[in-house]
Amino acid sequence: MSIAVHQTFPNPAGRKPASGETIFRGLTLAAALIVLATLLGVFVSLFLGAWPALHRYGLGFFVIQAWNPVTEKFGALAPLYGTIVTSIIAMIIAVPVGLGIAIFLTETCPRPLRRPIGIAIELLAGVPSIIYGIWGLFVFAPFMQTTVQPFLIDTLGTVPGIGDFFAGPPYGIGMLTAGLILAIMVLPFIASIAREVFLTVPDMLREAAYGMGMTRWEVNRSIVIPHVRSALVGGTMLALGRALGETMAVTFVIGNAPRIATSILQPGTTISAAIANEFTEATTNLYTSSLIALGLVLFVITFLVLAAAQLMLQRIKRRAGE
Amino acid sequence: MSTKLARRKLTNTIMMGLATASAALGMAMLAVILLHLVTKGASSLDLAVFLQDTPGPNDLGGLRNAIVGSLIMTVIAMLIGIPIGVLAGTYLAEYGRFSKLSTIIRFVNDILLSAPSIIVGLFVYQLMVVTQGHFSALAGTVALAILVVPIVVRTTEDVLRLVPDTLREAGLAVGVTRWMVIRKVIYTSARAGIITGILLALARISGETAPLLFTALSNNFFSLDLNAPMASLPITIFQFALSPYDNWQALAWSGALLITVAVLALSIAARLLTTKRVKS
Lengths: 322, 280
Known about the structure:
The complex is a heterodimer of chains A (322) and B (280).
Chain A: H1 3-8, H2 19-57, E1 67-68, E2 73-74, H3 77-108, H4 111-126, H5 129-154, H6 175-198, H7 203-211, H8 216-227, H9 229-245, H10 248-253, H11 271-278, H12 285-319
Antiparallel strand pairs in A: 1-2
Helix pairs in contact in A: 2-12, 3-6, 3-9, 3-11, 4-6, 5-6, 6-9, 7-8, 9-12, 11-12
Chain B: H1 2-42, H2 47-51, H3 64-95, H4 100-114, H5 117-132, H6 137-162, H7 165-173, H8 178-189, H9 191-206, H10 233-241, H11 246-279
């Protein structure tokens, strides 16, 4: 609490604080307020831009599947569906693999290798979205088309009940491909957050569990993971926030078809991909406004997800005694 | 009893094996992506890429205008974003450390940190492109700067808070004003950490595409005019990769390799800086 010192006692010279002090303090406050203003500005500007479309379609905007620039019928349902489905696919894969990486790095990995492997995984997070896009389109999608998708169609596609999700010709691109690319992209986030929170678990808990005769896996499953559950959920939601808004990589491989297909092998679209693809081509005001309305929907969803993530992560920080 | 123990041991072996496999998978993904980038990108990477502008379909050319455009927009975005980020981080760590306002700003900043970058593009489109009536490099620059700020705010606040309070107290005790303590003592001892944040921000915006799509747009010609559309490496990659022309696709791969090398070098440099700080 050194802060109070300066404020309570007058300057030794008895002068008013130098004007440099006031200016500097004012500048830092102004800069901090810019951060706040940015968020408010995003909300207000998106809302104003979306207003013509929201006014025209009302709540119907969220339940209409049509996306037809010619007849000016726009609905958010298909992009919203694609956004959610691709993100779910990504999380289903990335969460267990990310946890696995974290467990490996905190338990089994030889100590000298921990740092280099940790950095390598984090570098995956640094690779720009556009790189995943070009790689996904030219390398991963053909691989999906020739190998993975025919396999899925022949096996899971014939199973009654879930067969419809894996039906149709192998396009290569599509919602599954986009979901898998997203999984690779959010994997390092989950892994590094999980690793960080695993390290906050007191050694005494681990040692006590080992002392009881638990195996490594049992210690992690029954002691470590439950101990940091809320932070793990927070980290997962942080990754989900990224997946929901991810643009370029998805734009390359989703196929950009504004419709809802049952099969996840079919092309679809997401909110961010629709905006990225169509915004500069939007010829009418209503078209542009509908795309901005999509952006507003995306921002509200990611805001809620990220806010929830923050609250959950703060809980563990407080416990770690920050 | 012993069959139960055997089963537990087996489960343990399987699950820990899966954990190891996960890490191997992560490493393999990085290796595969880098390998493809190098093999596909390096084959068409020559001096012309740096010296010639983007060509027409099936014509010879390079990426000069896109590289220069990216450099200009990135540098100016950093120049705008760094002071705002460092000052705001200073407010959160120093003047407003315990204030209610800081709690809100921290929360908002963490959300902006992960907010979709395409949303920032839409915001700047509304803010600048609509009001000015045309796309401009300046709008792209502002969009990138908005992405720089939260990263720098976060790292600056974190490293300033690592500086022990005794240093602050010592400075104040000898009669130095608060802002001189911050400038001369706090910033000096936290310099490596602040630079790490700046490098991370630079790495992040070097590859950003979505915020430039409808702010800076793109330009087939060499341009230094901030008030006009400007080419950038990521947007050029986006356009060329999705084109049907072989030469454009080859240039897209070269550009992708350039960006990745730059971004990874920046990320590694940022990490090396942090290590040194921790060790010293």
